[in-house]
Amino acid sequence: MTRTLAILMLLVLARPALAQQDELLATAVHEALAKDRRVDAQQVRVQAEGGTVRLLGEVDTNDERRAAEEVAERVHGVRRVENQLSVAASVAPAPGTSPIPEKPAP
Fold first, then answer.
1. Pairing outcome for strands 52-59 and 80-87
2. 59: which residues sit within 8 A by CB, 6+ positions away?
3. For the chain, how far is it from start to end, CA to CA, in angstroms?
4. What is the three-state SS of the chain?
5. Could you give the CA distance from residue 88 to residue 34 in angstroms, rounded to a whole number?
6. What is the per-residue pLDDT for 12?
7. pLDDT tens, 53-66?
8. What CATH topology corresponds to 19-87?
C-alpha cells in the first residue's frame, strides 16, 4: 500500500513540471515560427503535450502550412507534429464581377 501511495504522490507532483515543460515547448515552437519569414505566426496557435506539438489556425497557402510543420519539427524537444492548420479558401470572383473591365462586343 505504501508503494502505491508513493507512486501516486510522484505522479501528482510530476504533473505541474510536465505542464510547465509543455508550455515551454509550445513557446519555443511559436518563437521559431515567428522567426521564419515563410510563416505568419500570428495566425498559428501552438499546443504541446508530452513532446507532441499541435499546430492550429488558418494560414494563407499550402506552402505556409508545410513550412510551419517543418519549422516545428526542427525545434528541440518536439517528438511529433500534428498539423491541424487549415488553408484559407481563395475566393474567385463570381462570373461577371471581374475587377478587370470587359470590352464591349463590336
1. parallel
2. 39, 40, 43, 44, 65, 68, 85, 86, 87, 88
3. 95
4. CHHHHHHHHHHHHHHHHHHHHHHHHHHHHHHHHHHCCCCCHHHEEEEEECCEEEEEEEECCHHHHHHHHHHHHHCCCCCEEEEEEEECCCCCCCCCCCCCCCCCCC
5. 19
6. 57
7. 999 999 999 999 99
8. Histidine-containing Protein; Chain: A; (3.30.1340)
Cell numbers at 64, concatenated = 505556409
| Sequence-separated (6 or more) residues with CB below 8 Å from residue 11 | none
Domain positions in the chain: 19-87
Cα-to-chain-centroid distance, residue 77: 15
Which grid cell sits at 31? 518563437
CA distance 33 to 54: 13
Q: Is residue 89 very low, low, confident or very high in pLDDT (cuts 50, 70, 90)?
A: confident
The number of residues in the chain equals 106
